[in-house]
Write a structure and sequence with these properties.
mainly alpha, 57% helix, 84 residues
């Protein structure tokens, strides 16, 4: 089940997983994960944090489809609406 989250919530999770948000400034939502210093292992950690904190289960291909925090939030919102 996909539970929607806000961009601010996601950015907080990304920061705890090592994202370099200060350098991106106000554009952090549109910055590619790689530019935020996040690799695929860090994104798996983000997925685990969201699963534990929000009960969010992501489809297997989800992390391969999203490349920025804003895309992540939009896709998660779309998934949650499909389930509703």
């Amino acid at each position: 089940m996909a539970t929607p989250i806000t961009l601010d919530e996601l950015l907080r999770v990304l920061a705890t997983c090592g994202a370099e948000l200060q350098e991106a400034g106000d554009d952090a939502g549109d910055a590619p994960f790689a530019e935020l210093g996040l690799d695929s292992l860090a994104l798996l950690e983000v997925e685990a944090v969201l699963r534990n904190s929000h009960g969010t289960e992501l489809p297997d291909d989800f992390l391969g489809r999203v490349h920025t925090p804003n895309e992540f939030v939009r896709e998660l919102d779309a998934l949650s609406q499909e389930v509703s």
